[in-house]
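Figure 2 data, in text form.
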Amino acid sequence: MKLVISAIVFWLLVLFGCSSTQIGRYYEFKEPNTIINSGIGYLKIHTLENEEKGDYADDPVYKVFKGYSIYDREGNLIQNVDKAYHKPEVVKLKEGQYIILAELYPFIIHSFIINIEKGKVLELDKSMIENPYAVK
């Protein structure tokens, strides 16, 4: 008798316990209830790439992107971006214009003006900057 009651209770739980309207809707997109107004944009510069090895013979060789400097329009230093391993660093900046000093070609320091827009990523590499020693 206990076995029959246990089986009935088990099947009732299986039939009615799993019949929910929320199954499959757990990961449904819910619209955010907050709006962020930051005025921040992002900058990513692919500077000159070097290979760097450690002090010992067994150390691996790393790809290293050289650092660069960011100045505002008045010439005040905003940030020095250090060298980055494997991939260039993404820098957060306020919306506006900046002057960049970066080495994109060997032994040539370029200075150029960029415009950072709110919420956008500005990604630069050497194909966008003219090499002054290239033959046209």
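Caption note: The longest strand covers residues 96-105.
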